[in-house]
Design goal:
Elements (H helix, E strand, L loop, with lengths): L13 H10 L31 H10 L4 E4 L8 H16 L3 E5 L19 E6 L15 E6 L3 E4 L6 E4 L2 H18 L5 H10 L24 H6 L15 H4 L11 H43 L50
Parallel strand pairs: 1-2, 2-3, 3-4
Antiparallel strand pairs: 5-6
Helix pairs in contact: 1-4, 2-3, 4-5
């Protein structure tokens, strides 16, 4: 892809149309198209899916060149494990670099298949709704659908010449979600990719007739995006990966304390850890003490059976063992203090200690 041209060929206007939904500037007050995030910087990449460089190349390419949101308004429904693995690895790479991948759910609802990379763990899958807010009939359903956005009769720019087009599909709705994510990344630069997705999910809405749905729904996901609400409402940051499915390669790292955990939540987690380790320590000491007691009793029983007088067992190489009361190696232990005992609760009932 290095050195190649992103200029569209004649009739090849899909990518330009999606870019215009995201960041078009328009041409005055009465002409042109205004994108949802007109100040967003576009990195155009020519990608023909499984027939060209494909996601294993294009997604890392965008990540390595500074993209913070990657909009993939195309997908493939494959049963090839190798292709699926490549898509999954590309999305996992993006998420590991804190880049949000937004993918189209697909336009073949009648087939009912998964569409990648939208279905890859770590991606944000997007379905399409009609102008009335209800799901578009062609939008692929499935557990990988996280959000929906307008996707029918969307006006956008053509790829060549001066003109516009009207499009329908999850490609258009994906561009809207990517643009909303770009706005959020601009306003909240300290939030992770998953926390950006969290703001979109927490402020999503459903048509009135669908408000009884159990979310996430296989058609609507968590609902239709509301960019203004996502920008303005007071939404807790949440965990690092938010609603995104964590790829297996990142699951071990995500076991660390989550970004966005409140001080109170962290304190509770710390107290639980202290109590758990205290119980383990006390249990270990009890086992050690019981073992020593059994060894001493067994030793005395053996000596009694051999006719030896009861008393402390002398070190086998000592010619003149010290009497018990004069043994210089005997350490005096306070009768009521176990030096290995950990307190079951932190001092003053606070954790972590107040500075």
């Amino acid at each position: 892809m290095d050195g190649g041209s992103a200029t569209p060929d004649a009739g090849d206007d899909h990518g330009t149309a999606m870019a215009s939904i995201i960041a078009a500037h328009g041409h005055g007050s009465n002409d042109g198209v205004i994108g949802l995030a007109p100040k967003a910087k576009i990195l155009p990449i020519r990608d023909f899916g499984t027939h060209g460089p494909g996601y294993p190349a294009s997604i890392p390419y965008a990540v390595d060149r500074g993209a913070s949101v990657i909009s993939v308004s195309m997908c493939f429904d494959s049963t090839d494990p190798h292709q699926i693995e490549e898509a999954n690895e590309a999305v996992a790479y993006a998420l590991s670099r804190d880049v949000l991948v937004v993918g189209a759910a697909g336009n073949e609802a009648d087939k009912g298949g998964k569409c990648y990379p939208a279905a890859s763990p770590g991606a944000l899958g997007v379905g399409a709704v009609k102008n009335d807010g209800f799901i578009w009939e062609g939008s692929n359903p499935g557990g990988f659908v996280s959000l929906t956005a307008p996707g029918t009769r969307i006006i956008s720019a053509k790829g060549t010449g001066n003109g516009y087009r009207s499009g329908t599909g999850t490609s258009d709705s994906t561009a809207y979600v990517a643009a909303a994510a770009a706005l959020l990344r601009s306003k909240f630069p300290d939030l992770t990719a998953g926390q950006i997705a969290n703001r979109l999910v927490k402020t999503a809405a459903l048509p009135g007739a669908e408000k009884g749905l159990s979310l996430p729904d296989k058609r609507y996901g968590y609902g239709i995006i509301q960019p203004l609400a996502a920008l303005k409402e007071d939404i807790p940051a949440g965990s690092k990966h938010g609603p995104l499915t964590v790829p297996e390669s990142l699951q071990e790292k995500s076991a660390a304390p989550a970004i966005g955990m409140s001080d109170e939540e962290q304190a509770r987690a710390d107290r639980k850890a202290i109590i758990a380790w205290t119980v383990i320590g006390v249990g270990s000491l009890a086992v050690i003490g019981l073992t020593v007691l059994l060894i001493v009793k067994r030793s005395r029983r053996n000596r009694n059976q051999n006719g030896a007088p009861e008393g402390p067992v002398a070190y086998p190489h000592a010619q003149q063992p010290f009497p018990p009361q004069h043994n210089p190696y005997q350490q005096q232990v306070a009768p009521h203090g176990n030096p290995y005992q950990q307190p079951s609760t932190p001092p003053h009932g606070q954790w972590p200690p107040q500075q």
